[in-house]
Specification:
Strand order of the largest sheet: 3-4-2-1-5-6-9-13-10
Shape: globular
Order of helices and strands: EHEEEHEHEHEEHEEEHEHEHH
Helix content: 25-40%
Oligomer: single chain
Strand content: 25-35%
């Protein structure tokens, strides 16, 4: 089996090395990813634009390729240019952050998996939810760092790919969206639906006292802020019991959501008969 691995955090992010290590005993693995962080770029494609591709080396000494484009670009370049044969599977991740709900269409990780499906390749998008209460730690010098514990994510990913090798993808499923919590209380995987949304978004300006620290953090010294605004977000607090958010945040267990990229309403036949506009066409 030939697997292409990409991500949106960049080719040198620790998550992509963890993804490679999770499945390298199961298949021939090729890593092609953006040369820098491309979080939240969705399915952006650099059509008819020059891209630079470079050979590089991951921290374990294995080869990889960096692309001066988006996650979706990297999947296209990897599948159609770098690899000699079409990959049997594309894995995107392991993303350093959560990717759940219908908000996944803004995710570079998930949309890179969508791009793989458009190329006729099944895919898995993988993300690690990093709980700030347990994952942010201090070293002996008092410096803060993030403890990326990919152990359970790697285990679940390995089991999922093994199952796919043996059984293939279920009928009607184009890709899986896998999210694993760092603060898990159960290793049991829950098959879930997408939540309606993950983020409550708000637009702030320099007059917002509550989020003043966040607003000013990105300002350069002496930069004027009167004409600037910022979109901020907070995680949604409540989720339906069968949803990805409920599994991840309430039950604190891995969530696996089977997805189909065809977004046509499943009730299209009922719409044809019930929706007045369709009756006129």
């Amino acid at each position: 089996m030939n697997i292409l691995i990409s991500n949106d955090d960049g080719v040198f992010a620790p998550g992509i090395l963890a993804a490679k290590q999770a499945v390298e005993d199961l298949a021939d693995v090729t890593v092609v990813a953006p040369d820098e962080n491309n979080s939240s770029v969705g399915r952006r494609l650099s059509l008819f634009k020059h891209l630079k591709i470079n050979s590089c080396t991951l921290d374990d000494g294995s080869p990889a390729y960096s692309v001066s484009g988006s996650p979706a670009d990297s999947v296209v370049v990897g599948a159609n240019y770098v690899m000699d044969v079409k990959p049997d599977l594309v894995i995107t991740g392991i993303n350093q952050g959560v990717n759940i709900s219908c908000d996944i269409t803004s995710s570079g990780t998930v949309c890179a998996a969508f791009e793989a499906v458009s190329l006729g390749i099944p895919a898995i998008a993988v993300s690690l939810f990093i709980d700030p209460k347990t994952s942010f730690k201090q070293d002996e010098n008092g410096e803060w760092y993030v403890d990326y514990d990919f152990s359970l994510t790697k285990k679940v990913l390995h089991e999922l790919v093994s199952e796919i090798i043996d059984e293939g993808f279920p009928e009607g499923v184009d890709l899986f969206n896998l999210n694993v919590p760092s603060n898990y209380e159960s290793e049991d995987i829950k098959i879930t639906r997408l939540s309606p949304k993950m983020l409550d978004k708000k637009v702030i300006d320099s007059s917002d006292d509550e989020k003043r620290e966040i607003f000013n953090y990105h300002l350069s010294e002496n930069q004027e802020s009167d004409d600037l605004i910022m979109i901020t977000s907070d995680l949604v607090k409540e989720y339906d019991e069968d949803s990805d958010g409920y599994a991840l945040f309430v039950e604190k267990r891995p969530s696996l959501t089977p997805l189909n990229v065809n977004m046509t309403s499943p009730d299209i036949n009922e719409l044809n008969s019930d929706f007045h506009f369709f009756r006129q066409v």
